[in-house]
């Protein structure tokens, strides 16, 4: 199910922030040895996503408590490098909440909208 969520959000990001999306990925590909060179592009993309991508806005609105718990866990476990051990349950809860929001809309990723038939029709 996570691929479903990831694909829907990526489709929304590409549709609503195409310039920022492409510029960030172009920068990353040109600076793969030092991605920190793309921080400004990452910030541009994040701002556009926050302001313009409906699926992300909906998830932020409906799943904000889950996100806060997950972010807090990451901060609390960063120094001890125990994020995987302690925070995965919060990430799972956040993803489940986000997936539920997408399913309520009845949306499907674009590649699932096409039915492939073996009978040539």
TrEMBL record:
Its main location: mitochondrion. Keywords: Mitochondrion. Coiled coil: none annotated. The keyword Mitochondrion applies. GO terms for biological process: cellular respiration. Residues 10-53, 58-101 form the IMS import disulfide relay-system CHCH-CHCH-like Cx9C domain. It holds the Pfam family CX9C. GO terms for cellular component: mitochondrial intermembrane space. It is found in: Mitochondrion. It comes from the Eukaryota. This is IMS import disulfide relay-system CHCH-CHCH-like Cx9C domain-containing protein.
